[in-house]
Design goal:
There is one protein chain. Helices cover 62% and strands 0% of the residues. The chain is an all-alpha fold. It has one domain. The radius of gyration is 20 Å and the shape is globular. The chain starts with a helix and ends in a 32-residue tail after the last helix.
């Protein structure tokens, strides 16, 4: 088993992520579908669902430990210490998600719908929503998806291709949650091919933006976690307490357009190779995998030409 993990570390991380999460999520979803009121769900059922969201990170730690032991795991977690990345990137992370949502809400109004009354007294809740969202996805996922999977993909593919692949993996990892009362943008609604396709397109666009942020902040996980929390919190909705579930669903679907407008602009300005222009050797090293395996993984990092001058990445023991 260890030999297989070392031969196929990225595939192993994805498989363990799915297995860990689905083993916990499927029984929880079945319990909800068989009559458990989501508003009165027992605490243990909510805990099972929460623990399931940590599948990607658990898988990353397990695979990294098999590849390189405790030292490699420490290097993986060290991405959480990358927080001095410049004020402008914090502004980007804090402003981009509400800006996209504001555009979607404006589009909703232009189409003849109403947002209802505006309640500025809800600002404390707006500011607190990202913090409340942290345990329900961002902290459980980002060590796995951005901390491990994205650098591994970028060691073999361009940043844009890596983002598309990871977007697909990320989308269908949520599959059991499609039928849950909440957890994804289409949870609580009929699960149709169109709804899944919408969620896939949205997630790929979001992944491109997250790769852009990751590659421009030396592989910072705090920024990835914060952006994830800001995106998933529906941060402006509390300011309009009269919004119905139907209106929120329509606005959420419309949000795919500003997200992809931002993603398209990033691709146009930065290029799909790195989504960060010409990376410096230090940055190219920072967003490289924690561990590479011998053989095909020795191929030159495709993020940028300067990678050939970067410090070598630790090799996994045979």
């Amino acid at each position: 088993m260890r030999a297989r993990v070392r031969r196929h570390p990225l595939l192993s991380q994805v498989v363990v992520s799915y297995a860990f999460s689905w083993v916990l999520w499927i029984p929880a979803v079945l319990a909800w579908r068989l009559g458990c009121d989501p508003d009165e769900a027992p605490w243990w059922l909510l805990l099972v669902a929460l623990v399931g969201s940590y599948g990607p990170s658990v898988a990353a730690v397990v695979v990294t430990a098999v590849q390189g032991g405790r030292a490699a795991v420490g290097t993986l977690f060290s991405r959480f210490r990358i927080w001095r990345v410049g004020l402008r990137w914090y502004l980007v992370v804090l402003a981009a998600p509400p800006l996209a949502l504001a555009v979607a809400m404006t589009s909703h109004v232009v189409q003849g719908h109403s947002l209802g009354r505006f309640d500025p007294g809800q600002w404390p809740l707006v500011l607190g929503l990202p913090l409340l969202a942290l345990p329900f996805g961002p902290l459980g996922e980002e060590l796995g998806w951005r901390g491990y999977a994205l650098p591994a993909l970028q060691s073999r593919h361009t940043a844009l291709t890596s983002s598309v692949i990871l977007g697909v993996v990320w989308t269908f990892w949520h599959l059991p949650a499609f039928w849950a009362p909440s957890g994804t943008l289409i949870s609580g609604s009929p699960v149709t091919v169109g709804a899944v396709a919408f969620y896939l397109v949205f997630t790929i666009g979001l992944t491109i933006l997250m790769t852009w942020i990751f590659n421009n902040t030396n592989g910072s996980l705090p920024l990835a976690v914060l952006f994830h929390a800001m995106t998933g919190a529906g941060i402006l909705f509390p300011l309009f307490p009269d919004l119905t579930d139907t209106a929120i669903a329509l606005i959420t679907r419309a949000n795919v357009y500003p997200v992809w407008a931002m993603a398209g602009l990033v691709i146009l300005l930065c290029g799909g190779r790195s989504l960060a222009g010409n990376l410096s050797p230090q940055t190219a090293t920072a967003v490289s995998p924690v561990i590479t395996r011998r053989g095909p993984a020795r191929r030159r990092q495709r993020l940028a030409p300067p990678m050939s001058h970067a410090a070598p990445v630790e090799e996994a023991p045979e």
